[in-house]
Amino acid sequence: MGQKRVPSSTPIIRTAGQDDAALLSDLIRQSYSDVALRFGLTPANCPAHPSNCTASWVQHDLSRGVTYYILETKGVPVGCAALELAEQDLAYLERLSVLPPYRRNGFGRRLAEHVIAAARRRGAGQVGIGIIADQIELKQWYRRIGFVHGETRTFEHLPFAVCLMSFDLQADL
Q: What is the pLDDT of residues 46-57, one digit of tens each?
């Protein structure tokens, strides 16, 4: 009859709505602040970096069909990720964020796997990501999940090279 109650210590992932925009932007901004500091990224030299995320940015994403997910543990929102369906066969994992005190608990992996599963359900054949090419430990982390390096590109509007990686959703079927 009623829904099964989830123990408060069990992390849950829920789909976010427009009313979560401020929460999402806070999670994203706080989660990427250490990356911005490490690579010298500022609103002046990299305004589109997630460390500069605003609620209006998230609202715009939601209005164009990007789906955000929030991971909560013990009732506290500690991470998020977004899924964008770019083309019929291609999805993007975006804004994967876990607050620094909650890292190394498997939350990032759970969010990534949740987005990958959602992309598969929606018929995508591939999930792509773009990360700072010099962030070697993050590249290795994504490889452990199953992403493969495609190419490294530079973009005129970014002060760093971007490592493009992908996860083939057809490979394990």
A: 999 999 999 999
Distance (Å, whole) CA 9 – CA 30: 23
> Measured between alpha carbons, how far is 171 from 33 in angstroms, rounded to an integer?
35
Residue-by-residue DSSP string for 40-80? T--TTT-TTSGGG--HHHHHHHHHTT-EEEEEEETTEEEEE
pTM across the whole model: 0.90
2: left (phi over 0), alpha (psi -120 to 50) or beta: beta
**Residue whose C-alpha is closest to residue 60's, from 96, 24, 13:** 24
pLDDT, tens digit (0-9, with 9 covering 90-100), for 127-170: 999 999 999 999 999 999 999 999 999 999 999 999 999 999 98
